Write a sequence for this structure.
């Protein structure tokens, strides 16, 4: 399946950053505090450094892979069988991701704003957005991300600037918080924030390999800065004893903003930017569900898949709601989240060893000789 | 097309939950009073939007006070919903008042339940009323404005409440009540005999009154005012601070860096000098623990802007300014020493939050928790250094 769709590195970076940023909007800062206590701000720094190391390694390996995505790599490594296995694994992973986020965010919205609405109604609204996104395809979704993600990030930064008067430096002590072991455990567990790497390696054919380095590093650095700033500002506002009980961290911070009689109750802006952020997240992941499934089975048309897949996602989201919102931060799910980093790494290592990307060049040279 | 769908999703999502202002009862103040053994009286002061806006004539009372005997907060709200035939909404609540009797027994259970409610703001002020919560709420009929919300905003910004500190607010109160680094305080109110508010003697009010008992009730309503801070140890009230002590407390903790303090005129004891005391950012607190005892160094750098002198003395002159400086030093040294002793050795409650500074001496949370700060705090030794500057003479 050849890709004629293309977009630039800016669109790709914005799309990728939002995939990490959606975690910040929901539960990420609180989970950091659970692991690190007053030293929670160290964990996003560590996971960003790990992500940088991971990507630098993968980038070197990608020299032998060309502009192939994960589905192509698996096809070149193990033929159609491996392609189907990997394609299905990625599809299941992405369906789980989008379902859990749809359920989690609908719950969040119900808690903070739509307390009377049935959860099915809240989910249905996002369901419509996801279907529309999948219908219009990856290029449209990427281009919309390119101008809405900066708006979301500016909104978030304004909220954190607004709470600067409430910062208390004493909240950062004891300096090592819960201790080295807990920080290390949290750093591994919370690497899940970068599970979206899998989408980066599915997107390579859309923006060409020459931009992979730029997109990858900008995505990690911008996302890392946002993760660090979100956690740091959260722990500076709330002492760790209080922070661990705050269900929706950025919303809780926004409730603290008050400048005179005019700037108050900024949390309504949070609801707006959070809704946009999560809607974009759901649209991107769901669009890739359709893309991966279509590519895995070499289907000519993808649109007939949209509604059935959406119904599966909707049903799973309703099921996840019956557990609770903590599903997003459940430690037992960490391994599933880490699939987003481990699976691409394994495929890229094997693909690089077999030099799957160089086969095309070799074929071309042979053809030219004849 | 996609963008319009996305925007519809975001903007229409609230339609299901919309509610008109007339459908809700906005609670301005919540009062908690002691009742029988396992129950308490819950009082709501609810805004009357019609009277506030003046629509349809207005003119009536801008708030309604109603009380319900209940054994838990949720049941109380249900009763209020039924009685007022509106849904109770706590998003505009400004104060939570508890009676002194309840405060002495512990209030965290009531307030924790309240904090679970997403509507309630984290900056709601906690007030302890010596004469009972309902009595206090009834006494604070908004004056000079028909808007009760504005009245409360202004109440906490006035000169009389210069000592108001953020730690009297709900979120900070609960943090302090459940943790060891700092202990809670709340605003303390009692009858103030110095206030005499008079109304025109003739008119409808008198005609409608029911006799002597009503008149005496009105008199009590007028006389409640903020008198200082209630000191807590965990969630139980253990004592109170007067207005002067509360002002020094605000200065020490940095919660109010700009307070007005008056001292006896050093050159004429009959009069007073009023100064605006401004705490500089260079002021600092350092806490070290030696042999299991906290050593607390307080370094206060203050600028005093003299604002009013009752006598004819000219404090522009360097000699006289030096005497005024000594007078302020004496006042502050004595006041701070007395306050520290009272709170540390009598109340044994770290309302200053020196435990938060003590955390800097420990690397991990386990190490900090093992110190058991509330147990060692009463053994604290203080070293307080004052650095005063008379910056401008009025």
């Amino acid at each position: 399946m050849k890709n004629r769709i293309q977009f630039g590195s800016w669109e790709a970076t914005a799309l990728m950053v939002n995939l990490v940023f959606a975690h910040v909007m929901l539960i990420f800062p609180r989970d950091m505090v659970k692991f690190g206590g007053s030293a929670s701000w160290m964990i996003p720094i560590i996971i960003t450094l790990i992500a940088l190391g991971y990507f630098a390694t993968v980038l070197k390996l990608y020299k032998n892979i060309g502009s192939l995505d994960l589905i192509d790599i698996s096809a070149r490594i193990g033929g159609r069988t491996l392609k189907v296995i990997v394609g299905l694994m990625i599809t299941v992973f992405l369906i789980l991701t989008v379902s859990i986020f749809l359920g989690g965010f609908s719950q969040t919205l119900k808690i903070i704003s739509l307390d009377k609405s049935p959860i099915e109604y809240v989910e249905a609204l996002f369901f419509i957005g996801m279907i529309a996104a999948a219908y219009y395809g990856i290029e449209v979704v990427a281009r919309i991300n390119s101008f809405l993600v900066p708006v979301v990030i500016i909104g978030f930064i304004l909220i954190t600037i607004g709470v600067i008067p409430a910062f208390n430096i004493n909240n950062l002590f004891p300096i090592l918080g819960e201790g080295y072991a807990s920080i290390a455990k949290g750093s591994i567990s919370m690497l899940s924030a970068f599970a979206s790497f899998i989408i980066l390696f599915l997107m390579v054919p859309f923006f060409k390999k020459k931009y992979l380095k730029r997109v990858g590093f900008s995505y990690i650095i911008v996302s890392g800065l946002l993760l660090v700033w979100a956690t740091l500002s959260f722990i500076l506002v709330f002492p760790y004893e209080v922070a661990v009980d705050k269900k929706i961290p950025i919303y809780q911070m926004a409730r603290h903003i008050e400048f005179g009689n005019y700037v108050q109750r900024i949390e309504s802006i949070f609801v707006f930017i959070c809704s946009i952020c999560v809607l974009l997240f759901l649209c991107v992941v769901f669009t890739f569900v359709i893309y991966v499934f279509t590519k895995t089975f070499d289907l000519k048309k993808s649109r007939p898949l949209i509604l059935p897949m959406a119904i599966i996602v909707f049903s799973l989201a309703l099921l996840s709601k019956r557990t609770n919102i903590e599903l997003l931060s459940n430690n037992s799910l960490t391994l599933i989240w880490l699939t987003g980093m481990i699976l691409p790494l394994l495929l890229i290592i094997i693909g690089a060893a077999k030099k799957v990307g160089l086969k095309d060049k070799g074929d071309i040279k042979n053809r030219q000789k004849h | 097309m996609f963008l319009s769908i996305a925007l519809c999703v975001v903007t229409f999502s609230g339609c299901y939950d919309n509610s008109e202002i007339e459908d809700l009862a906005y609670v301005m103040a919540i009062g908690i009073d002691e009742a029988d053994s396992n129950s308490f009286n819950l009082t709501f002061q609810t805004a009357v939007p019609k009277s506030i806006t003046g629509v349809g004539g207005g003119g009536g009372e801008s708030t309604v006070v109603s009380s319900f005997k209940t054994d838990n907060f949720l049941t109380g709200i249900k009763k209020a919903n039924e009685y007022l035939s509106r849904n109770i909404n706590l998003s505009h609540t400004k104060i939570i008042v508890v009676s002194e009797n309840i405060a002495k027994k512990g209030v965290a259970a009531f307030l924790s339940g309240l904090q679970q409610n997403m509507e309630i703001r984290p900056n709601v002020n906690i007030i302890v009323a010596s004469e009972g919560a309902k009595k206090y709420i009834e006494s604070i009929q908004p004056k000079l404005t028909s808007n009760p919300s504005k009245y409360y905003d202004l109440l906490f910004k006035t000169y009389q409440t210069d000592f108001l500190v953020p730690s009297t607010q709900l979120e900070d109160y609960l943090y302090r009540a459940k943790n060891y680094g700092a202990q809670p305080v709340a605003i303390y109110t009692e009858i103030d005999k110095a206030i005499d508010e008079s109304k025109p003697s003739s008119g409808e009010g008198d005609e409608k009154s029911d006799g002597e008992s009503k008149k005496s009730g009105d008199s009590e309503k007028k006389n409640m005012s903020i008198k200082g801070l209630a000191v807590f140890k965990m969630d139980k009230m253990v004592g109170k601070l007067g207005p002067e002590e509360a002002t020094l407390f605000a200065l020490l903790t940095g919660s109010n860096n700009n307070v007005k303090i008056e001292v006896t005129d050093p050159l004429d004891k009959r009069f007073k000098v009023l100064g605006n005391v401004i705490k500089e950012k260079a002021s600092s607190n350092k806490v070290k623990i030696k042999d299991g005892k906290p050593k607390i160094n307080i370094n206060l750098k203050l600028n005093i802007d003299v604002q009013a002198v009752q006598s004819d003395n000219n404090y522009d002159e360097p000699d006289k300014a030096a005497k005024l400086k000594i007078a302020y030093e004496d006042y502050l040294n004595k006041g701070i020493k007395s306050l520290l002793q009272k709170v540390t050795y009598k109340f044994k409650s770290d309302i200053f939050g020196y435990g938060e500074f003590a955390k800097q001496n420990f690397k991990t949370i386990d190490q900090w928790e093992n110190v058991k700060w509330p147990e060692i705090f009463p053994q604290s030794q203080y070293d307080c250094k004052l650095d005063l500057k008379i910056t401008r003479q009025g």
